[in-house]
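Hi there, hope your week has been kind to you so far. It would help a lot if you went through both lines with me. No rush at all, and the record is pasted right below:

***
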Amino acid sequence: MKYGIVAFPSKQLQDFANSYRKRYDTHYAKITPHITLKGVTEVEDSQIESVSNAVREICNHFAPISIHLSKVSSFAPVNNAIYLKVDPTEQLLDLHQALHSETFGGEAIYKFVPHITIAQDMNSGEHDDIYGQLRMTKVDFSETINRIHLLYQLEDGSWTVYETYRLTDEA
């Protein structure tokens, strides 16, 4: 089973991201706008409960996370994806690090760049044209995220929530 761990922003921020995603993101119908905290990871079906319990335990050590989105950016030339930049905070980086322990498959493959993807799977010409337009978009969202979600991938490639966890800082 493929799983991942994400944080979903508020409906207002999701609506803003979707206004671009429906035109420019090939994954628009497969998952709602999100901040990936733990990328796609393979796990045996029999292990999902232990993964879920470990996520719950981590959430007991983290308070709700304040986030601020400040601009449109791009991963080009490495990848022709365009995203809403989430300003990294120590708390967000620490949560990401906690979700990359040996229990969760170890170190992350990529450097953590918190973001919400709004466009992907474009050729270089499309990317340059769209990014040229979108980077002038005013982005200024601040909010608090108090839940993270363990998702799993269905056969059609879409993602659905397995379990939701509150960030409680009760440990």
